[in-house]
Structure to design on (406 residues):
């Protein structure tokens, strides 16, 4: 069966690339022909162009190396309709990643620095209705939502009429699962009749689905001149001060570990006392392998935590995810997607939130938690997650095949 994959994938984001490639090769192993549908608004492309850097081409090169079946760009449902015909697409899987977003006006009002307040902007593909919700796509094509996420969408502000429209869109799906508990609660607020399961991000199965693209540990050690035991440290900003990072460096050195500054897709944006760094440009497959073979990871993003948990690598989250109030402060409402994943692994002590652009964590606490990381417990849970993932994929294919054969 020709199966379209509709997700964020052609973006400057390591995890987004990897989750799409993982799904792509899972479908191939199941005997199907996957086609990645490049859906993106013109507004998004313009914003991406402004943020273009030396890393941007690395993401595109990786996708060209790994996924031969990609469509031309689709800006709307009419473009997707043409793609469905051209590639003879028989079913569509939507997800994974944050494809079911909607951020209402009340959730986007923030305290300004120059003005009393401002309203954060959204994009067409992060605002309902759009193709990620299946809206406008012909009903002759069966669709499933796989481990989708709402990226902290504040569903409590959704109007009754909006929820009715969302409900109709969701009722078209032959299968729905979500990546986090927040999205599960959002869908149940839209319709209590939905049967929604929390399922793993496809990166939790990357070793099984796309192992052929992962460099060996020896290759990466030689390429990046890595120390024997290294800890990758990656931050969006100076959420850990230089003093905290120095204490972290000393603490890990006492345990025989060397800190290495590890890049975000936008580069290394924090000052640090480490002697080694891995900066952009960085191929996504190297990014994955560097995490897989690391002795530990300390950092801000979600997908590095997913890669570490998948490979039972000790990790600690400096968390900046979740909903924010008018003042820009994080709300204590369990909306953080990293917190959700660590809770599944019973690792709630391995995350500290950023408060007003700074994380007030004692570096010695991070070192102690890394050293006492329960590897065997995490490895067992990772295997459970992979089993849940495989059952999910089998269920999705079954639902799509049964529908398309009618």
């Amino acid at each position: 069966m020709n199966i379209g994959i509709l997700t964020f994938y052609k973006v400057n984001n390591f995890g987004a690339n990897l989750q799409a490639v993982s799904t792509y090769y899972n479908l191939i192993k199941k005997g199907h022909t996957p086609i990645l549908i490049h859906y993106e608004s013109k507004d998004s492309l313009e914003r991406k162009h402004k943020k273009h850097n030396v890393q941007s081409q690395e993401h595109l090169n990786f996708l060209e190396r790994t996924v031969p079946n990609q469509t031309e760009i689709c800006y709307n449902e009419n473009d997707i309709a043409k793609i469905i015909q051209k590639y003879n697409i028989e079913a569509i899987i939507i997800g994974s990643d944050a494809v079911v977003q909607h951020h209402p006006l009340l959730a986007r009002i923030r305290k300004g620095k120059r003005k009393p307040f401002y309203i954060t902007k959204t994009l067409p593909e992060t605002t309902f209705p759009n193709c990620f919700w299946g809206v406008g796509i012909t009903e002759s094509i069966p669709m499933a939502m796989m481990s989708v996420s709402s990226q902290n969408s504040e569903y409590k502000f959704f109007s009754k009429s909006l929820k009715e429209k969302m409900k109709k869109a969701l009722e078209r799906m032959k299968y729905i699962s979500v990546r986090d508990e927040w999205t599960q609660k959002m869908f149940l607020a839209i319709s209590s009749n939905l049967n929604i399961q929390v399922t793993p991000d496809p990166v939790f199965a990357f070793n099984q689905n796309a192992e052929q693209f992962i460099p060996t540990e020896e290759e990466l050690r030689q390429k990046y001149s890595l120390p024997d035991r290294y800890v990758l440290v990656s931050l969006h900003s100076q959420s850990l001060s230089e003093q905290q990072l120095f204490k972290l460096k000393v603490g890990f050195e006492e345990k025989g570990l060397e800190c290495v500054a590890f890049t975000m897709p936008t580069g290394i944006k924090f000052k640090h006392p480490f002697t080694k760094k891995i900066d952009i440009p960085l191929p996504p497959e190297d990014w994955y392998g560097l995490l897989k073979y690391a002795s530990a990871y300390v950092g801000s993003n979600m997908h590095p935590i997913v890669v570490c948990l998948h490979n039972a690598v000790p990790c600690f989250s400096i968390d900046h995810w979740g909903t924010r109030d008018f003042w820009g402060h994080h709300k204590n409402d369990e909306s953080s997607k990293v917190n959700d994943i660590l809770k599944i692994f019973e690792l709630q002590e391995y995350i500290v939130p950023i408060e007003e652009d700074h994380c007030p964590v004692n570096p010695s606490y991070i070192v102690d938690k890394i050293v006492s990381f329960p590897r065997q417990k995490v490895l067992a849970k990772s295997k459970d997650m992979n089993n849940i993932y495989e059952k999910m994929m089998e269920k999705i294919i079954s639902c799509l095949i049964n529908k398309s054969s009618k």
Notes: The first helix runs from residue 14 to 29. The CA atoms of residues 103 and 154 lie 6 Å apart. The chain has two domains: 2-210+386-404, 214-373.
